[in-house]
């Protein structure tokens, strides 16, 4: 009977060890599951962080682009409103006859100085004159065809008359140059 008790005792020890091992296994699997959960949460937070970082960078770039646009093109309405002043001053200068130049030299010089100053201010703010010449090729990006007419000795699409100069604000058209275009076919 002592043997049996000893066998039972050994069985009891093995069974206790097995239960302890199962408990350790359960504890380890619980810890592994908890670790997996923590890793998944970490990955989710890292993903959210990276997205928020990218959104912030995109917002910064968009704000910088908007600031540049406002700086470069914010004055386009004022510049456009000043174009008729340029046109009128240019017409005034062009309409002065040679015999009038001597009699009104001071007045004419004042008008020409004012015109140069206006051109200087335009240039300072990125406004430049688009001044096509007769014989240039018509470009719909910077020219507006006011009329089309056949003119002997010209090719179709050639500028035959310039009615008004155009203006660019940096790389944008403020006003296209107004031109007449030849419709002659060679």
TrEMBL record:
- GO MF term set: adenyl-nucleotide exchange factor activity; protein homodimerization activity; protein-folding chaperone binding; unfolded protein binding
Task: From the Swiss-Prot or TrEMBL record, state where the protein is found.
Answer: Cytoplasm
Q: What domain of life does the UniProt record list for this protein's source?
A: Bacteria
InterPro entries with a match to the protein in the record: GrpE, GrpE_CC, GrpE_head
Q: Does the keyword Repeat apply?
A: no
Which ranges of the sequence are coiled-coil? 46-73
What keywords does the record list, in alphabetical order? Chaperone, Coiled coil, Cytoplasm, Stress response
Q: Which family is this protein grouped under?
A: Belongs to the GrpE family.
Its biological purpose is as follows: Participates actively in the response to hyperosmotic and heat shock by preventing the aggregation of stress-denatured proteins, in association with DnaK and GrpE. It is the nucleotide exchange factor for DnaK and may function as a thermosensor. Unfolded proteins bind initially to DnaJ; upon interaction with the DnaJ-bound protein, DnaK hydrolyzes its bound ATP, resulting in the formation of a stable complex. GrpE releases ADP from DnaK; ATP binding to DnaK triggers the release of the substrate protein, thus completing the reaction cycle.
Q: What is this protein called?
A: Protein GrpE
Organism from which the protein derives:
Pelagivirga sediminicola
């Amino acid at each position: 009977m002592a043997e049996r008790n000893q066998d039972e005792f050994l069985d009891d020890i093995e069974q206790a060890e097995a239960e302890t091992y199962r408990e350790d296994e359960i504890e380890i699997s619980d810890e592994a599951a908890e670790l997996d959960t923590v890793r998944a949460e970490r990955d989710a937070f890292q993903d959210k962080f990276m997205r928020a970082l990218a959104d912030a960078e995109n917002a910064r770039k968009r704000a910088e682009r908007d600031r540049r646009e406002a700086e470069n093109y914010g004055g386009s309405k004022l510049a456009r409103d000043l174009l008729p002043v340029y046109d009128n001053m240019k017409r005034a200068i062009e309409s002065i006859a040679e015999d009038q130049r001597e009699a009104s030299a001071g007045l004419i010089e004042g008008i020409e100085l004012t015109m140069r100053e206006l051109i200087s201010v335009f240039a300072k703010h990125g406004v430049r004159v688009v001044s096509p010449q007769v014989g240039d090729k018509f470009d719909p990006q910077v020219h507006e065809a006011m009329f089309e007419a056949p003119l002997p000795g010209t090719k179709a699409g050639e500028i035959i008359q310039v009615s008004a100069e155009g203006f660019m604000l940096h790389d944008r058209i403020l006003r296209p140059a107004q031109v007449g275009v030849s419709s002659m076919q060679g």
